[in-house]
Each structure stands twice: as structure tokens, then as C-alpha cells.
Amino acid sequence: xxxxxxxxxxxxxxxxxxxxxxxxxxxxxxxxxxxxxxxxxxxxxxxxxxxxxxxxxxxxxxxxxxxxxxxxxxxxxxxxxxxxxxxxxxxxxxxxxxxxxxxxxxxxxxxxxxxxxxxxxxxxxxxxxxxxxxxxxxxxxxxxxxxxxxxxxxxxxxxxxxxxxxxxxxxxxxxxxxxxxxxxxxxxxxxxxxxxxxxxxxx
Length: 203
Known about the structure:
Shape: rod-shaped
Number of strands: 3
Number of helices: 6
Order of helices and strands: HHHEHEEHH
Strand content: 5-15%
Strand order of the largest sheet: 2-1-3
Number of domains: 2
Helix content: 55-70%
Mean pLDDT: 77
Low-confidence stretches: 57-65
Largest sheet: 3 strands, antiparallel
């Protein structure tokens, strides 16, 4: 996408330089360099000055189009720069860059969009931490319950051996306890599987 003004072309040129290792001349330039690819920046920075207005007229009609920044909904393992996508308001958010259904919000400048993206990523990290903490607590409780039921089952097995006449009663209790233990073991496996999946996504 070519630059729509000389000012934008210069801004993208500075961002491209920062992308390639130069010291950013401002926070805005640093933010743009971080959120856009080298190829995207080259398209803007490579626009010829001839025929371009010095600045985009925000109050006009046809030439009032400025670049907007869409912020995507956060997801596990996301980075702020991954959530921000620049786009032309006339054409909308490109489907190959971001699905419209997952757009969280849209902003007229990179600084605001990046700040919102950072906030969303932080919220996601806190949410995942809370979920992991709950899973850890649940795992501990289930493990203790399994140990308790296992102890009871062993007691009934021993009682059945010592008193064969009442073994049928003990067998019923053993079967009941075994079913409970199996159910808890299944729940434990699901929690552990979920933990591994989240850990894998973060890596």
C-alpha cells in the first residue's frame, strides 16, 4: 500500500530504518517498526514524493483517508505487536491479516492501538495464571480424595479376606469405591492434559 502523504512516507521511512537496526527517532516510530513487517514498511517508504500532499487533509472528503489500526482479540501466547494490524479504512481490515470477527477495537494511531494491545495481552496472562492456579488447586483436592478412597478400598479388600461370610457386602463397596476412583482419575487426566496443552502453546 503506497503512502497517502509525504509526512506518512517520511514516517514509514524512519520506521523502516528502525526496523533495520537504526535508533528510533520517537516512540511512535518504534511502535510502527515493531508492529509492521519490513515488506510493508518498504511499500510505504518507497512511495515517490511527486504528486503526494504534504499532509493528509483530515477534514476533506476524498483525500481524508488515513491509516487506521485494528486490535485483535487476545489469545494464548500472543504478543502486543501480533494483535495490531494497520489498514485502509476504505478497504477495511484485510482477511489475510485479521478476521473481522476477532477485531477487538480500532484506533486512528499506532500508540493507542499498541497500548490497548499490551493491556489485552497482560489481561490474558493474568487470566491464564488464574486458570492454572485453579487447576493446580483442583488437582491437589482430587489427588487427596483419590488417596482417601483408595485407603477405604484397601480396607474393604482386607476385611473381605478376613471375613469371607461378609465378602459380598465388601465387594459391593469395593466396586462403588473403584467407580469413584476411576471417575476422579479421568478428571485428573483431563486437567493434566489441559496444562500440557497450554504449556506447549506458550513454548
